[in-house]
Amino acid sequence: MSRDRGKTRRVQVRIDEIVEKEIRSREADWSFINSLPSKLRHALLLYIETGDEYKASRLAGLTLDEFIELRIKARIPKVVVVEE
Amino acid sequence: MICSIDTCFLIDWTRYSRRKLLLKVFDYCYIVDEVLNEIRSENTIVFISELLARGFLVFYPFRREIASLVRELVETSIRDPRIRTLDPPEAYALAIGIRENAIVLTENRGVLNLVKLYPKYSASVWRSYELLQELFKRGLIEDIDEEIKRYEGETRHKFSRIHRR
Known about the structure:
The structure holds two protein chains of two kinds. Chain A is mostly helical. Chain A contains five helices and one strand; from the N terminus they run H-H-H-H-H-E. The relative contact order of chain A is 0.16. Helix content of chain B is 52%, strand content 13%. A five-stranded parallel sheet of chain B has the order 3-2-1-4-5. Chain B is globular, with a radius of gyration of 16 Å. Chain B contains eight helices and six strands, in the order E-H-H-E-H-E-H-H-E-H-E-H-H-E. Chain B has one domain: 5'-nuclease (Rossmann fold), CATH 3.40.50.1010. In chain B, helix 4 crosses helix 5. Strand 1 of chain A pairs parallel with strand 6 of chain B, so a sheet runs across the interface.
């Protein structure tokens, strides 16, 4: 019973991650992203892939609030999955 | 009610025009001082300085006491491939939440997964969505759908609804 519940949670976690990534990628302004210098471009790609702002900001060499500003300029949403 | 707050959450919340409602829900809020290293923008500095002046934001004074818990949380996240590795800001926010029975304000996927998959690290984790719902429950906002739209627009968030059986 509890093993089933654990499995269900693992599946839910994975589904949420896939949904989040798909929305980030779909809504991103790719022409803006592709116009950026390599470091910033790869940081945004890392964010789209993982949703992890902290690591992406380290890669970009930016503070977190600078990175969030960049994310918004690139029109990448922060996706929050909400259960109905 | 008290909370601990992750740096990203605080930066995002600062962009929300009704950000001061945070003070109506919580008595005070723990942060760790690394938060300040991540802030450059004028608006965020102004808001944080106001919250510090009011005594609402409090630098967590017992860091040494939670160091081993922080280490345990980070190590668990590194070992378990289902969990995105926690970085210091969110690990501290979660450890403070566990230790102080505080609401953890974060949208970090690593924290959300860790709490979901490891019941021993039990903590109440709220994302902005849950915080907006709480504001609505308390009558501090009138129209939840409008407010969610406003928050999404001002912070470039997207609340994606999933139906689970």
